Each structure stands twice: as structure tokens, then as C-alpha cells.
User: Which sequence fits this backbone?
């Protein structure tokens, strides 16, 4: 997991289940979520070896008992674990729960609602035509069922 620090503490957090804490797995996660020019602070886990080439502002510190050098990271981990235990009493696969908690945590400080943020994001991007984001299969059959009646349509797309 990784956290993004803002002026008033933690502004965002990111998490992903990795099979092992190797350079490949940790590096992929870090490149997906961290800018190359960001200040990155890690512990001395061997999976971070050699990542200084991609993250030149990376510093490494010894990981103390109970997260003393990484207090904010430790706090977020404890909050996630408490949420997971209190809300979800049985977990089969962890990644969907990490995704949900990430979504909730990263939006809890938003002053506007989800709808306002969605509209603002949509207005900031260029428009997409319907045919650009709908996958259409040529000469496909679509079934529409209403009550006991079944209607069949054939799409003839050149």
C-alpha cells in the first residue's frame, strides 16, 4: 500500500494485493500510482532495491517496531483493518475490499457530492462519440423479452 501526504495529513491511499514483495510486484504498483518526480519514503525491504533509478527522490528508513518511522502509514493500515473486521466479517478475496476502502477513503474529504465531481470530470474531458465506446459485433442478434413475448433484432453493421 502507499499513501499520499497532503498539507493536512494523508490525502489519498492506494492498495493492491501482491503475490510476493519483489521488485517486479512492488515496482509495478509504485509506477502505477506514484509520479517519478515524487518524494518517496520506503523501508529497507529488499523489493525496493534498484528503484532509485525510477524514483530519484526515494529515501529509505529503518522500519521500527509498531510503525514508529511510518506513523501515518501505520494509522491507515490500522483503520483499514478495523473497517474490514467491523464491516466485512468474512473475506474470501482481499482486492475488492481494498478497492472499496480506497474509493471511500479517497473521497471522504470531498466537499461536493459524487454527482458534482462526476459532472466536473466529464466537463474537463473531450466528448466521446457513442460509437467510440460501445463495442458492436457485426451481424449480431439481440434478444429483447417483454412478458411472454420474445423479440429478435439483427444488427447489420458494416
Assistant:
Amino acid at each position: 500500500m502507499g499513501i499520499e501526504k497532503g498539507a493536512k495529513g494523508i490525502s489519498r491511499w492506494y492498495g493492491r494485493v501482491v503475490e510476493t514483495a519483489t521488485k517486479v510486484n512492488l515496482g509495478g504498483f509504485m509506477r502505477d500510482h506514484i509520479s517519478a518526480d515524487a518524494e518517496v519514503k520506503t523501508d529497507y525491504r529488499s523489493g525496493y532495491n534498484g528503484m532509485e533509478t525510477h524514483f530519484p527522490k526515494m529515501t529509505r528508513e529503518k522500519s521500527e517496531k509498531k510503525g514508529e518511522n511510518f506513523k501515518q502509514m501505520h494509522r491507515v493500515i490500522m483503520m483499514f483493518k478495523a473497517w474490514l473486521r467491523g464491516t466485512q466479517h468474512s473475506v474470501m478475496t482481499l482486492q475488492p475490499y481494498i478497492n472499496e476502502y480506497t474509493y471511500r477513503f479517497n473521497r471522504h474529504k470531498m466537499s461536493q457530492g459524487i454527482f458534482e465531481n462526476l459532472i466536473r470530470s466529464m466537463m474537463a474531458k473531450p466528448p466521446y462519440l457513442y460509437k467510440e465506446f460501445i463495442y458492436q459485433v457485426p451481424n449480431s442478434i439481440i434478444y429483447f423479452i417483454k412478458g411472454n413475448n420474445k423479440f429478435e433484432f439483427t444488427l447489420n453493421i458494416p
Summary: The chain has a mean pLDDT of 80. Strands lie at 2-6, 9-14, 40-42, 58-60, 140-146, 149-155.
